[in-house]
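Please fill in the sequence for the structure shown.

STRUCTURE ENCODING:
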């Protein structure tokens, strides 16, 4: 039996808090959500700037604050909501396996985010790693790449080089990869008619998911931004994808058909061979 979600009123609207989505759902229109990752975590509560005219949160002003003109026009207002542990203590205990004593003594961030991993990443500077076909790579956002461990000759996997292989819906990359050189490597898509034997297809998460702290630093966000929803991992593993489950399967069929058509066209346009007149004489 599903439990009733805790409710809270915001600017005259009733919202339900869903701890699985880390979001406030408008009670009358649950598809409309207020994500806590878009709010400021003030530790004792969350804050966001609310646009009175559009009746929606304003993310840019939540991040940058309300200026003097906005205050004079009274277009926006700052909304404060309780921390998750206060809105839904039972849900917090259930999901994060913590005690009510933890709820009273710790912040949401301390309960919901792996503090050991956070310390290793921020204080010790440890980079996340991802295992690709048995080899370890460092997630190095400052160098814009997955950098192979103990292979200084390899260029690794540069994110800007594989941008066309990114899937927005899945938030993953699926790329051709050379396990011998530890690099991204494309086959010749114009002529390929067989699955490549020296390459494999791999899938791995976006750089934001691989290193949220590095992503936050790179783009000027608070280093804690998004961690409550995403949590924090320092070790990942890429998936090996069979070639017949990639776009290459259809491309090979197209290339084979084009190659067949070219051969047939070439044969049709070959000049007729002159009929050879056999000299009269003894048969072999």
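FILLED IN BY: designer on duty
SEQUENCE:
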């Amino acid at each position: 039996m599903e439990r009733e979600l805790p409710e809270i009123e915001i600017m005259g609207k009733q919202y339900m808090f869903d701890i699985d989505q880390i979001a406030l759902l408008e009670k009358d229109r649950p598809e409309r959500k207020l994500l806590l990752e878009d709010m400021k975590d003030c530790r004792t509560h969350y804050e966001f700037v609310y646009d009175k005219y559009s009746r929606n949160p304003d993310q840019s002003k939540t991040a940058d604050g309300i200026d003097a003109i906005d205050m004079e026009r009274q277009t926006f207002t700052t909304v404060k909501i309780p921390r998750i542990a206060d809105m839904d203590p039972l849900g917090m205990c259930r999901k994060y396996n913590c005690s009510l004593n933890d709820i009273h003594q710790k912040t949401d961030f301390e309960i919901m985010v792996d503090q050991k991993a956070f310390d290793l990443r921020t204080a010790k500077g440890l980079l996340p790693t991802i295992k690709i076909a048995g080899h370890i790579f460092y997630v190095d956002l400052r160098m814009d790449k997955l950098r192979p461990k103990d292979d200084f000759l390899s260029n690794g996997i540069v994110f800007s080089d594989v941008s066309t292989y990114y899937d927005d819906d899945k938030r993953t990359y699926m790329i051709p990869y050379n396990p011998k050189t530890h690099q991204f490597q494309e086959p010749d898509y114009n002529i390929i008619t067989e699955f490549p034997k020296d390459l494999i297809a791999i899938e791995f998460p976006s750089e934001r998911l691989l290193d949220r702290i590095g992503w936050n630093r790179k783009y000027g966000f608070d280093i804690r931004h998004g961690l409550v929803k995403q949590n924090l991992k320092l070790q990942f593993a890429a998936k090996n994808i069979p070639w017949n489950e990639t776009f290459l399967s259809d491309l090979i069929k197209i290339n084979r058909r084009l190659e067949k058509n070219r051969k047939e066209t070439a044969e049709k346009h070959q000049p007729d061979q002159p009929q050879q007149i056999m000299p009269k004489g003894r048969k072999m």
